[in-house]
Amino acid sequence: MKVGYVQFKPIFGKNDENLSSALELLKEGVGMGGELMVLPELFNSGYVFKNRRELEDSAEEIPNGKNG
Questions:
Q1: Most Cβ neighbours (<10 Å): which of 2, 7, 29, 49?
Q2: Would you say residue 65 lies in a domain?
Q3: pTM, whole model, 2 decimals?
Q4: 45, burial (CB in 10 Å: exposed 0-12, middle 13-18, buried 19+)
Q5: Strand partners, 3
Q6: Is residue 54 part of a domain?
Q7: What angle do CA 31, 33, 36 make, to 5 degrees?
Q8: Residue 52: its pLDDT value, please?
Q9: Backbone region of residue 31 per phi and psi (left: phi > 0; alpha: psi in -120 to 50; beta: other values)
Q10: Total number of domains in the chain
Q11: Beta strands of the chain (E only): which ranges?
Q12: Which contiguous run of DSSP H or E holds residue 53?
């Protein structure tokens, strides 16, 4: 099995743009033969939160999740 990873610099708070960038990079990795592609945690929101409120504001619901 070929394992690949995606590493890029997400733009803080730009979830949709980061997701779009990650999808393009995933497609590229699969095109190079990747069978299992790995993304870093918080790839869609960015990493540096000023406070808990900022973190909560960027959180997304998990469909059919415990609180969803």
A1: 29
A2: no
A3: 0.75
A4: buried
A5: 36
A6: yes
A7: 105
A8: 92
A9: alpha
A10: 1
A11: 3-5, 36-38
A12: helix 52-58
As given in the structure block, the two tokens for residue 34 are 């990747």
Rounded Cα–Cα distance for residues 43 and 5 (Å): 12
How many C-beta atoms lie closer than 10 Å to residue 64's C-beta? Answer: 6
Name the CA radius of gyration of the chain, rounded. 14
Q: Which domain holds residue 31?
A: 3-58
Give a yes or no: residue 66 inside a domain: no
**Does the residue 49 lie in any domain?**
yes
Look-up: residue for tokens 């497609």?
27
Measured in whole angstroms, the distance separating CA 6 from the mean position of its chain's CA atoms is: 9
Secondary structure string (H, E, C) spanning 5-67: ECCCCCCCCCHHHHHHHHHHHHHHHHHCCCCEEECCCCCCCCCCCCCHHHHHHHCCCCCCCCC
